[in-house]
Amino acid sequence: MPITDEEAALQAISTLDPLSKDQRVALDQVNHLLGGDHGEPHVDMHELFRLFNVIYFRGLLLPRVEVSWSSRLTLCAGICELVKDEQGKYRRIRLKLSEALLKYRPCSDTVDTLLHEAIHAYFFITTSWRHSRGDDGTGHGNGFLLLADAINNHGNYLVAVYHTFHDEVDNYRTHIWQCDGPCRHRAPYFGLVKRSMNRAPSKADSWWKQHLEECGGNYMKIAEPELTKKQLQSMSAMERAGRQKNKIDAWVKDKDADGNPRNGQQRIGKEANESSSKNESLGAKRQMSFADDTFNSHSKVMIVGCPICDQRMTVADINTHLDSEHPS
């Protein structure tokens, strides 16, 4: 029967007093890498992990645990997960550190995160997959707290259960949805859902059912990051057409949900007035003529090209053209 997290933690703690010869050598190397003015400005996380394995984890982590940087990890500073080996069994462990959150943080934050995830890896090896649940449901139960506290006291680290890089996390949450229901007026979220990935709120979210019962509003996307040149080039013609159609819909629609003129309407009016004034100053050769005096800012005819077939037509006809000639 596998041992518990607390028992595994006590086994690791018992090796810290006194340290073995190998542990003392490894500790000297860590102090050289991290110590004061003589410390290396950019520490090799793989080398540091190898040394921590000797000092704190009874040499059990290598070679089963692999350490890597992740550019896609933006909600947490690190993650430790079980992965399948060559036989299809979950006996390998992958430890990832968030490049996005840690690259501008002090080196000490990266070291503390590395130790945090290494503790998880140690328990996966010694207590099997049961550690993923733990006695508190998160893997940060009494065993984790025991070992983290011992490592903090021994090496003057600050291994904690949760990180505090909230500003960094929020910086990557660039996909934003706003609910149009009553919850938009309630603290603390005010109907906003912010995510680093383009995944709209749906029934897949644990809170979705409660939101339907208490609010019942619909989520509309209000912000997203600009697509890179590579992302635009990889889009299909139909996807580009959809983006063009959405822009045109927002541009020519008279009023928004609150009854206020949309920016596109105001922009058309401004362009029409500027164009009219300019033509008057250029003389008869460049003047525009109109059938009557009913012209206003909404009468200006805008010619656009279909993003799929490049056929030229007015703004008023583009949506009908897309629906009839290029149905999705």
Topology:
Layout: H1 5-13, H2 21-34, H3 45-56, E1 65-70, E2 78-84, E3 90-98, H4 99-102, H5 107-127, H6 142-155, H7 166-171, E4 175-179, E5 192-195, H8 208-214, E6 219-223, H9 229-234, H10 237-252, H11 263-282, E7 303-305, E8 312-314, H12 315-325
Parallel strand pairs: 1-3
Antiparallel strand pairs: 2-3, 4-5, 4-6, 7-8
Helix pairs in contact: 1-6, 2-3, 3-5, 10-12
Uncertain stretches of 5 or more adjacent residues: 264-273, 275-299
Order of helices and strands: HHHEEEHHHHEEHEHHHEEH
Strand order of the largest sheet: 1-3-2
Q: How widely separated are the two ends?
A: 58 Å
| Separate helix tally | 12
Describe what this molecule looks like in 3D.
The protein has helices spanning 5-13, 21-34, 45-56, 99-102, 107-127, 142-155, 166-171, 208-214, 229-234, 237-252, 263-282, 315-325; strands at residues 65-70, 78-84, 90-98, 175-179, 192-195, 219-223, 303-305, 312-314. With 328 residues, it is α+β, with helices and mostly antiparallel strands. The strands form three sheets. A three-stranded mixed beta sheet has the order 1-3-2. It has a three-stranded antiparallel beta sheet with strand order 5-4-6, with no helix packed on it. Helix 1 runs parallel beside helix 6 and helix 2 packs antiparallel against helix 3 (45-56). The protein is elongated, with a radius of gyration of 30 Å. Mean pLDDT is 76; it is low at 264-273 and 275-299.
Put the structure in a nutshell.
This protein has twelve helices and eight strands. With about 325 residues, it is an alpha+beta fold. The longest helix is centred in the middle third of the chain and has 21 residues, at about 105-125.
